[in-house]
Write a structure and sequence with these properties.
4% strand, two-stranded antiparallel ribbon
């Protein structure tokens, strides 16, 4: 997840900033064709890996809290295979991006364009493809993560700790419960808020026949929506840094 969060802004942010000031592709030839494909493929893969990682982290915490006496749901031996699986799934889902994106040369400029119908035919829709992705890797993970963290909090709240009669023990338990609840709320809300603008954008593209964007600040709404959606990769480490003492200690040890 850390690697995917790091790769995402490296490949996406410079390109997005460039498109705000210049509406043409800057590099031609074979190198330009390769970059045109990768600049769309790699950020989406990185984002999808991060989403899957959030789900796996929630599942691991769920198993540790709800079933503390059982073997971990995600063992140390299983972790490398699950990490590899998240990358394989993400690359498989967005492999079409390697075929539908290409640089087209016009008399006045170069443009990196999407040619979905040209590759997959008129019967296939890029908008339906993206809506399916948003549902499967947006709404479904959001609901699952919310359910898992709510269950974790309820389990911690109902857990009876032996000898918890002292004021100090009670305060420590309440503090731990508050931290778990705050972290769960922050993760779920951050995920939902980052996903909402791009979801609205794709739903409007799919379910409306009239182009309404010139009256709504196009193309800036699309740029902002995409940047907010991708910001989830940067928000996750911040949430961990705020709520996790182990995360902060590990970061301090890294820079010593």
């Amino acid at each position: 997840m850390a690697m995917s969060d790091l790769l995402f802004p490296i490949f996406l942010i410079p390109w997005r900033i460039q498109t705000l000031y210049k509406d043409s592709w800057l590099i031609g030839g074979p190198l330009g064709q390769v970059l045109c494909k990768l600049v769309s493929f790699l950020p989406k893969v990185s984002s999808t890996v991060s989403i899957q990682s959030l789900v796996l982290i929630a599942v691991d915490r769920f198993g540790a809290v709800v079933f503390p006496l059982r073997l971990p749901l995600i063992s140390s031996k299983l972790c490398p295979f699950l990490i590899l699986a998240t990358w394989i799934v993400a690359m498989a889902i967005f492999s079409p991006q390697l075929f539908v994106n290409k640089v087209v040369e016009y008399p006045e400029k170069l443009v990196c364009q999407l040619h979905w119908s040209e590759v997959f035919g008129e019967s296939s829709s890029y908008e339906h493809y993206m809506i399916s992705y948003i549902v499967l890797f947006g709404f479904v993970p959001l609901v699952l993560i919310a359910i898992l963290y709510i269950t974790i909090y309820l389990k911690l709240k109902s857990k009876k700790i032996p000898g918890e009669q002292s004021t100090n023990a009670g305060q420590q338990r309440q503090q731990r419960e508050r931290n778990v609840l705050k972290m769960a709320i922050a993760i779920v809300l951050g995920f939902a808020v980052c996903l909402l603008p791009i979801t609205i954008f794709w739903c409007i593209l799919l379910f409306t026949d009239t182009i309404i964007w010139p009256n709504c600040g196009d193309p800036y709404f699309e740029y902002v929506a995409r940047l907010i959606a991708t910001a989830n990769c940067a928000i996750n480490p911040c949430i961990c840094l705020i709520f996790s003492r182990n995360y902060r200690n590990g970061l301090k040890a890294l820079f010593r």
